[in-house]
Amino acid sequence: xxxxxxxxxxxxxxxxxxxxxxxxxxxxxxxxxxxxxxxxxxxxxxxxxxxxxxxxxxxxxxxxxxxxxxxxxxxxxxxxxxxxxxxxxxxxxxxxxxxxxxxxxxxxxxxxxxxxxxxxxxxxxxxxxxxxxxxxxxxxxxxxxxxxxxxxxxxxxxxxxxxxxxxxxxxxxx
Length: 174
Prior knowledge:
single chain; RNase_H-like_dom_plant; RNA-DNA hybrid ribonuclease activity; nucleic acid binding; RNaseH_domain; RNase H type-1 domain-containing protein
């Protein structure tokens, strides 16, 4: 018997009758298995949660397939920027790969305090700067930031805080 079950059975109260005959491992006192409910909890677990008025909510996420599409010519730049808090400590990293997926070079930088948008834009900037230093031709940019990719496509900077990097970034993309 679990500790919660021991505590509940030791106390007297109106819930004692509710739990009588079931333990919290999903079987009754006779050792028979109790059927699972639609939350994936045994009746004893669900009853205990409901006794404390804890709502039972389940969200099911289906897996989504992920694949990599290699560039037809040139190289691809994969970047990611993040901040711990918004704003918070931030950084960015990226790598350049050829059409076979082979790693050519990469970078990782700590940016200090900033937002996730600033970190994403700076990661794009640092990746393109690496491309220029190595005389490579980036044909595809991969990022998980929809905001940054949309801003690059539209030619508008996403936030005033990224302006110092944005000016040069756009010059490199033209």
